[in-house]
Design goal:
This protein has helices at 12-26, 46-80, 158-164, 167-173, 198-201, 215-219; strands at 95-102, 105-112, 114-116, 122-125, 134-138, 147-149, 207-209. Helices cover 32% and strands 15% of the residues. The structure holds ligand LQESDW3C and manganese (II) ion. InterPro entries: RtcB (IPR001233), RtcB-like (IPR052915), RtcB-like_sf (IPR036025).
């Protein structure tokens, strides 16, 4: 049995990023850019160091939150199954920055909607509230910066999903899954997410499906935990 939870910095990472982006846009070397979103910090400057400090802080905050939530969840399961034992947890960021080296060059890799798939790394590619998820093992493909996608992929925006689907659709698409079925989570409906195996096929060069899990063995933990 796998216990899976999904949580990030709960907005503080976004708040910090927006503050630093605003600072970057005011720097002299960014004033004549064709697009304001191209504003950057220069390595070694105080602005870059302040950004990095806040970035690492927010990522660590999210990681510790997940560790606390997972410990609470493990305790709940232990109360129901006193004989349970747990293996090593898999901590798998999917919106984060890492300092890595490729071809002898130190780079900051932004995995936005991506996970690390370094050789042998265990990762999680969740499906949706109605389908199974995959535990994967990275292949260390440097051409892809040792990365793989972080989920099944979205077919439509949250706002379109709210217009397209009803709570009845949500109940039908999550039949047999213990999860919320109210209007507040219609934008998470499985129909908003790709589910065909075809959408997963390109990922095989980046990671392989680990024998430690299969679609069916994880489907029971699907949904919000
Ligand atoms: N097993 C579940 N997978 C889910 C659920 N909600 C989303 N997802 C998958 O995770 C990725 C990442 O989600 P995001 O909101 O951070 O983009 C997404 O692409 C889906 O494949 C869920 O409730 N259960
Ligand atoms: Mn996420």
């Amino acid at each position: 049995m796998w216990l899976m939870l999904h949580s990030g910095s709960r907005n503080i990472g976004k708040e910090l990023a927006e503050r630093h982006i605003a600072i970057a846009r005011r720097l002299p070397h960014n004033t004549d850019l064709p697009d304001r979103d191209l504003a950057v910090f220069l390595a070694g400057t105080p602005e870059m160091e302040a950004y990095r400090r806040d970035l690492w802080w927010a990522q660590e905050y999210a990681r510790r939150n997940r560790a606390v939530m997972m410990a609470v969840l493990c305790d709940v399961v232990r109360r129901m199954l006193p004989q349970v034992t747990y293996g090593e947890p898999i901590s798998c960021h999917h919106n984060y920055v890492a300092e890595e080296s490729y071809g002898g060059v130190e780079v900051l890799v932004t995995r936005k909607g991506a996970i690390r798939a370094g050789a042998g790394d265990l990762g999680i590619i969740p499906g949706s509230m109605g389908t199974g998820s995959y535990i994967v093992r990275g292949r260390g493909n440097a051409d892809a910066y040792c990365s793989a996608s972080h989920g099944a992929g979205r077919r439509m925006s949250r706002s379109k999903a709210k217009k397209t689907f009803s709570t009845e659709d949500l109940a039908a698409q999550t039949a047999g899954v213990e999860c919320r079925k109210d209007a507040g989570v219609v934008d998470e409906i499985p129909g908003r997410t790709r589910t065909s195996r075809r959408s997963w096929s390109g990922r095989r060069t980046l990671s392989r499906w680990s024998p430690i899990s299969s679609r069916s063995s994880v489907s029971r933990v699907d949904g919000w935990v």
